[in-house]
Amino acid sequence: CASTPAARLKPAFAAIPVGTGDRLAVPNGYIASALAPWGEPVGLPGNLPAWRPDAGNTADEQAAQMGMHHDGIHYFPLDGSRRGLLVMNHEYVDDGLLHTDGLKTWTAEKVRKSQAAHGIAVIEVEQTAGGEWRMVRPSRFARRITANTPFSIGGPAAGHPLMRTAADPQGRTVLGTFNNCAAGMTPWGTYLSGEENFRNYFAAGEKLDAHQRRWGLTRTASFRWPEHDARFDAVQNPNEPNRFGWVVEVDPMDPASTPVKRTALGRAAHEGAWVAVTRDGRAVVYSGEDARNEYIYKFVSRDRIRPAGNGLTAAQANRELLDHGTLYVARFDAEGVGQWIALVHGQGPLTAGSGFADQGEVVIKSRQASDALGATKMDRPEWLAIDPMSGTVYCTLTNNADRGAAGLPGPDPANPRANNTHGHIIRWREGGDGGGDFDATRFRWDHLVLAGDPAQARSEAKGNIRGDLFACPDGITFDARGVLWVQTDAHATQMYKGEFANIGNNQMLACDLATGEMRRFLTGPTNCEVTGMTMTPDGRTMFINIQHPGETPSDRSDPADPARFSNWPDYRPGGRPRSATVVIRRADGGVIGT
Ligand code: FEO
Ligand code: CA
Ligand code: CA
Ligand code: CA
Q: For the whole model, what pTM was predicted?
């Protein structure tokens, strides 16, 4: 484990058992309650449409309500630990639950509602005298960003020919963000979110070109938007997919601000983005690409972070900070050594003769550029986290059943297991000796843990966990006291059987970095994912998200598997499950984890 400064908090709570059934569990002495589930009005002044349990809300109403599938989340204080903003992603939707008659019919209104249930929410929350948290409604900060909200484009792809469409001939304004996963925040007070599986929203028709194939586009879309919104017909609008797959930046304190896609950070099936600061004050942004056999990136800003002043907030003073700098991709070599390779037009293979006309094309085609540079193909990089005490960077590699399959990459030092069903967590320290600054081009890496279950027969499924079992690490977050929290996202189709028989519901654990012990803190309801973690500055309130309880609705009618039914958190008989935020406190009001 990383060297452990004396100030690091040692997690101290009674671990809970493997999660079963349709309930959320936390240790004795803790209280957990749902807040801001799908469909709650976010608090737009004069626009507070009540949630209809029959899913009868219109698209316009949905655009004023919490979206579906809560994911990454961050607390921005307004009044310390008593009142603040929660900013969170709504990764995607389950159209079977979103509409009263599910997918039995399909209309333009349903497409608009589906689009309105995606994106990002900003809500104001406060703690009452009794200790509970509630939404403040209306709130001047309340905001929904959806798949139709205008974004500007920053960085080298702004205005690029590959970003231009008939509706946006300048290539500088994109409508919307979707499939947003992880949350990050910047030292200048903005929120970062990654656009992950954007490919699922586009229909690319019968003839895919090499660029479309490399980005996984398919003939038809998983979400049925192209049927009623030609923007998602990539035959008619072949550049529209190039406008997604970016890290987006939102200033939550200014509800009128236009969010920005930061193209200098590279295009990828981005999980999210996390910021470290070099000793001389430049921003270093780590990000990964949650897709099988794709890459881990870092971006080093050209300029130093500016303080607030001259009438500008810190967010305003750093409005263009992430538009200028150098993008790198990671190569993990044997013996725990690694290299950051620059994606700079004109260097090495990234030339016009090799298909990269300029830096804009390098960032739009980051995958092709990383292929050409020989970067390491990883086992689905999900969240990253930077240890506030040691500077060690951690990344979850959630799983990769393709590792070692015919014609695909085999095990390598960093991704050591064929058919990696349970996933692992890798980490590195910057510099050739591990003692460098965040802008170093070499690093030293090792594994924190290989997830698995020693009871399994297959050697690659055993893992080396110390403490409580888990599989498919996804969310990973350090709190301010240096505790590493790990959340899991094993898929509904794998859970409760075979190599996952002893793992139970998805969960959250704390890692004691002094010993490597994983200790189970929370288990979620049936077939949910546990994701996103943020705390108030006093460490007394934790917010996490429960995503897609009861995934998927088809499971609800499967008599062979009634255990998959969920109607968390309302437990309304026959009701719909709802993704929601969960507020966790100690019953005695004490500090979480101690
Ligand atoms: Fe959307 Fe990779 O989780
Ligand atoms: Ca995730
Ligand atoms: Ca996941
Ligand atoms: Ca998910």
A: 0.97
